Amino acid sequence: MRQKIIAGNWKMNQTLEITHDFITELSEKINQKEKSKQIIIAPPYPFLERAVHWSKGKGIDIAAQNMHQCDKGAYTGEVSADMLYSTGVNAVILGHSERREHFGENDEILMQKVVQALENNLQVIFCTGESFEQRKTGKHFETVQTQIEKALFALQAHEIEKIVLAYEPIWAIGTGESATSGQAQEMHAYIRGNLSERYGKAGAEKIRILYGGSLKPDNAKEFLFQKDIDGGLIGGASLKVVDFLKIIESC
Ligand code: PEP
């Protein structure tokens, strides 16, 4: 049985004060049952170290939304995996479509980032997903397969087990229009099939695959009970405790 993950990607939102109040309120409200799930929030960089401090021992893990692929050097404005780990951050989101689109992150860079993150003991949430055009023209499976193969398939079996995948169709992110649960399950099963071909069935069965794309309190259950959907990566609906908690409670 794979442990479910509910992860909130705050993007460039919230303040330090809101981060404090969010963690305090969420940790008061998550009960024993919720503690069997892995709950992650990904605040912006400046809040990470405090967020780690406030969430310690409260059943909430803290992730970064990005990191650089090199370990150090003349990269003004960038942050390394080692720096994140030293602040107590547990995880990092890599390959989000907004990073691929606005910041030119390609499969080669992502492969380097994944290696750096693993070397520094960070859990990786690796995002993959197709554009609307690619889905319309039937290229969605091929697109996702290529992204996964290029960035992840050089990893050894013991390394891939530390990766969490997040299938996020780009056309469903922040648009209010989610994929259907059937479309999501179909893609998740396809991804697991690919993992199985590369790492064997037993290995593939251990890997968690999250769905992301306009997941909300009122549609979460439908997604989170699909056979190959092991949780959610949530943007907009992770900004308010009330919404995020409802999603946590629905799996
Ligand atoms: C995301 O950005 O990862 C995401 C899934 O956003 P939203 O839930 O707002 O669609």
Q: Compute the number of structural domains.
A: 1
For the record, the CATH class is Alpha Beta
Order of helices and strands: EHEHEHEHHEHHHEHHEHEH
Count of helix runs: 12
Approximately how much beta-strand content do the residues carry? 5-15%
Q: Nearest-angstrom radius of gyration?
A: 17 Å
How far is it from the N-terminal to the C-terminal residue, by CA? 13 Å
Descriptive overview:
The relative contact order is 0.15. The chain has a single domain, classed as Aldolase class I (TIM Barrel), CATH 3.20.20.70. The chain starts with a strand and ends with a helix. The chain has 251 residues and is an alpha/beta fold. It is built from 12 helices and 8 strands. The model has no long low-confidence stretch (mean pLDDT 96). Helix 11 links the parallel strand 7 and strand 8. An 8-stranded parallel barrel has the order 1-2-3-4-5-6-7-8, surrounded by 5 helices. Phosphoenolpyruvate binds next to strand 8.
